[in-house]
Amino acid sequence: MSELLVSKWLNTRDDISLEQLRGNVVLVYVFQMLCPACILHSIPQASKVHQVFAPEKLQVLGLHSVFEHHDAMKEQSLRAFMHEFRIKFPVGIDKASIRTKGIIPQTMEKYAMQGTPTLLIYDKKGELRLQKFGHIDDIELGFILGSLTSEIVS
Amino acid sequence: MSELLVSKWLNTRDDISLEQLRGNVVLVYVFQMLCPACILHSIPQASKVHQVFAPEKLQVLGLHSVFEHHDAMKEQSLRAFMHEFRIKFPVGIDKASIRTKGIIPQTMEKYAMQGTPTLLIYDKKGELRLQKFGHIDDIELGFILGSLTSEIVS
Amino acid sequence: MSELLVSKWLNTRDDISLEQLRGNVVLVYVFQMLCPACILHSIPQASKVHQVFAPEKLQVLGLHSVFEHHDAMKEQSLRAFMHEFRIKFPVGIDKASIRTKGIIPQTMEKYAMQGTPTLLIYDKKGELRLQKFGHIDDIELGFILGSLTSEIVS
Amino acid sequence: MSELLVSKWLNTRDDISLEQLRGNVVLVYVFQMLCPACILHSIPQASKVHQVFAPEKLQVLGLHSVFEHHDAMKEQSLRAFMHEFRIKFPVGIDKASIRTKGIIPQTMEKYAMQGTPTLLIYDKKGELRLQKFGHIDDIELGFILGSLTSEIVS
């Protein structure tokens, strides 16, 4: 299990870790608030998955991984965005690069993501089963979620 | 298992029965060719499921159950419709009512369907697991299909 | 003015001619009931134009021009289709070819249409101002209609 | 003519005034960058109108009128938003309230707008002909634009 590196969690009382969520299927929607494909496709899909299946069947998380326009997407802006777009699931802020002048946040770099939106899906054992850059069709996503939640963990 | 009552199968060399398909998850899209909700939502969803998952993961069938405008939806018209809408999966024609002046075809009556579109989903054992009148969202359908195909039949 | 050649008008008490409608901007949506692009785009647009603008600002007509699957799209089927798709504007049936074995109906041939959907737009003087095969975007269509209805005819 | 009160223009070399644009039909899309209805409907419509009709037939402008989450929607954020959403038309920043603790920007207050999105349409004489809060359908907007551009100004 490759833990998310998060500087701050929003929309949740307590911090969240993948370790804690072991035993659950977990989706992590990695996004930037000013990414059109995220706004038009990814965030609405995340909200639908959250509304239809969480928390009984699975867990939905967001991860705000800013790799461009950093000054335009700080916490304050993200909070306004989440309020306006009615995001109800927990969202973590990807830790800023530790390198001088580094622009890629730490989780994004660790996972070698190509950009946003990226979807990460972990099974009940905490294994990463899907890492997908771009859009995934609802019916294919639903199939994966139905399959993974059916897995019996000994 | 409650067998479909079909007078003729199109888009298939051999006749089809649920009995034959035991061991597979099977979807039956019940429709009428002049039903707007069928054309706008149900048939496109059926074609997507067929294209994405069949025949490895599941089987998709259509059932043309005409309960109104009978003269406008005969086999010849259905064949033109299937050609124009590029329906690639097998479609059965629901058997006409055996009663004098009966307008509800036999499978539709046997299953007490409320109209079209109706979706029937059978598990690998041939048990009917879902009968839904109207539209089902792609993500919910995908989840059901992922769950059912994961079931292990002893 | 190049009159429509119609064997029968539906959804109207009296027969209709372009000559009668002179003084009005007139849209003619040429379609086949089993043409997917007609069902998905053209007919819904025609119904919207009819609902928003007719009859005060303009007239909307349909023309059923069958050039394939003739037996599947006869008057009876068309009537069922119009009922199911709630078509409220008058629809004429394009006159069958006068030639032996001719498959292209007379208005379609006279206008050298490439297929369906085709949109014909006439100005207040009865002049054909647009003949377009395929889809036209709502905003471009609206602009043309706003322009043509603004023309002053002396 | 009730001039826009703008602190700064983006996407244009020179400042813009309605007075200068007299003789043109002018659309002003009033928006906030974190307003979902603006992002999903209004900005895409503005970009389409700009692409299809401007600058020959009409002028498209944006006005960024922030009345909430002010700190999240400053110029820097707006510039990132405009870059990501590929906004090609000029956008003015509505002047901040002159009153202490005032949150409604000056143009928004002057026009008594109810919120965002709001669409303002001026005719060739510079008269305001439409002020609409919320979404306007493409076909209705196209009709208005076709009508107004057809008006002859003596």
What does this protein look like?
- The structure is a homotetramer of 154-residue chains.
- Helices cover 30% and strands 21% of the residues of chain A.
- Chain A has 154 residues and is an alpha/beta fold.
- The first copy, chain A, has a 6-stranded mixed sheet.
- The longest helix of chain A is centred in the first third of the chain and has 18 residues.
- The mean pLDDT of chain A is 96.
- Chains A and B meet through helix 1 and helix 4 of A and helix 2 and helix 5 of B.
Q: State the oligomer.
A: homotetramer
Fraction of residues of chain A in helices?
25-40%
Mean pLDDT of chain A: 96
What proportion of the residues of chain A form beta strands (DSSP E)? 15-25%
| Main beta-sheet annotation of chain A | 6 strands, mixed
In terms of per-residue confidence, which ranges of chain A show pLDDT below 50 for 5 or more consecutive residues?
none
Form type of chain A: globular
Distance between the termini of chain A: 17 Å
Structural class of chain A: alpha/beta
State the largest interface.
Answer: A-B, 21 and 21 residues
Q: How many DSSP-defined strands of chain A? A: 6
- H-E string of chain A: EEHEHEHEEH
Quick overview:
Chain A has four helices and six strands, in the order ββαβαβαββα.
Task: Produce the secondary structure layout.
Four copies of one chain form a homotetramer.
Chain A: E1 6-10, E2 26-31, H1 36-53, E3 59-64, H2 75-84, E4 91-94, H3 106-110, E5 118-122, E6 128-133, H4 138-150
Parallel strand pairs in A: 2-3, 3-4
Antiparallel strand pairs in A: 1-4, 2-5, 5-6
